[in-house]
Amino acid sequence: MITRRTFAKVLPLSALPIWGRAEQTPEETSDLIYLTPILSDGSESRCQAEVWFQAHEGALYVVTARDAWRAEAVRRGLNTARVWVGDVGVWSNSDGRYRQLPSREVAAAFVSDQAVQEAVLDKMGSKYRMSWLLWGPRFRNGLEDGSRVMLRYS
C-alpha cells in the first residue's frame, strides 16, 4: 500500500535546491512536524505522530481524520500540544531523535473558516506536489463531508 510517507520519499521536493531565496525557517523547509497533546497535568500524551503540515500566517495547520487522536484531544479540551519541526522518519522508530528538533508548545484549535482552509490546502498542494495528486482530493473531500478536520497549532 502506498502511504503519503512512501510516496513523498520517491521525490522529496524539499531536497530540491531553491535558488534566489533567503535562508528559510524549519517551518518552510520541513515536510513534517511531530506532535503530541499536553495532558492536564503538564505531561506529554503517549499519542505521538509525524504528520504533514503547512505554515500559514504564523500558525501550523494539519488535516486529519475526524476521529484521529489529534482531533479527539482537542475535542476533549486538551488544547495545548508540543510540536517538533523536522524529519527523522517515523517517530516510533526514531529513538527519540525528533526531540532534538526545534520545538515549541502551541495552542490547538479546530479551523472551520473555509477561506483559511482553502488557503492552507492550496499551499499544501504546492508543498507536497506529487503526493497531492492523490491526497489533495482526499483532504478537500474529507473537509467537505466532515470525515476530516483541520487543526491550527499557534
Structure summarized in a few sentences:
The protein contains five helices and seven strands; from the N terminus they run H-H-E-E-E-E-H-E-E-H-H-E. It has 154 residues and is α+β, with helices and mostly antiparallel strands.
Description:
By secondary structure, the protein is of the alpha+beta class. The chain has one domain: Pnp Oxidase, Chain A (Roll), CATH 2.30.110.10. The chain is about 30% helix and about 25% strand. It is built from five helices and seven strands, in the order H-H-E-E-E-E-H-E-E-H-H-E. The protein has helices at about 5-10, 25-30, 70-75, 115-125, 130-145, and strands at about 30-35, 50, 55, 60-65, 80-85, 105-110, 150-154. It has a seven-stranded antiparallel β-sheet with strand order 2-1-5-6-7-4-3, with helices on both faces. Helix 4 (about 115-125) runs antiparallel to helix 5. The longest helix is centred in the last third of the chain and has 17 residues, at about 130-145. The chain starts with a helix and ends with a strand. About 25% of the residues are buried. Mean pLDDT is about 85; it is low at about 5-20.
